[in-house]
Amino acid sequence: MKLKDIAGLIDGEIIVKGKADSIDIVSVCSSDLMSDVLRFAAKGALLVTALNQTQVIRTAEIADIAAVLMVLGKKMEKDMIELAKEKNIALMVTHLPAFTVCGMLYVGGLRSCLEE
Amino acid sequence: MNVEGCFQLMGGDFTNAGAASSELKSTLSKLGVSQDIIRRASIAAFEAEMNIIIHAVAGTMHYVVNNGEIRIILTDMGPGIEDIELAMQEGYSTAPDWVREMGWGAGMGLPNIKKNADRFKIDSVVGEGTTLEIVIYMRKD
After folding, report:
1. Domains of chain B, CATH where assigned
2. Residue B108 with chain A: CB contacts under 8 Å
3. Which of A39, B48, B67, B92 has its CA 20 to 30 A from that of B41?
């Protein structure tokens, strides 16, 4: 699923475009624990998280995560946004909670990294 | 191929946490190492780097790429690990709450390192520090 379609589906706003145009998301990882992301996330996945720290972007870079979706409309520090730009990682935000977002994405055809 | 490098790591420096592993990843990329190997090496290095940032006063990450393997050695001046067997268990962590609020301290660091390494050695002396040696083969044989 293309990032702009995901944004449309979950009422998200793309904050950092990264390689958004060429990204085709097939799997999703939802976690606020970075070690779990490093352990279970698949390459090219979408990370759904409520953790608004630069650590998320570092983790995304190391784990080859294509895009990060911040839930609950969490405000992101300038440092986090700058790092996402520098590392070319797409960053989206939605006012919806993780549970709802994951449900919508599942219905939309996306699967967990562990099922994919 | 013989490439090596070293990074200084400061305990508590969450602003730059992960920068060393990020640089290692980019170096391995430039060397043309395969994506899968790069990912394993980067994840192991990142978890080990975070351990130093979280638990130690300071430390170093030293890496050597030669003879078909990536060797990453992390040495810290930290509290040391009292019970290595316990620390290797998934879910066991001594990280304080403020670290958990940053998304770390789930007790998955050392198990994640072990999972991604072909060879993994840990030596620790309480009150002196810990040394990790992570080896990842670049060849399948």
Report:
1. 3-137 (3.30.565.10)
2. 33, 35-36, 38-39
3. B92
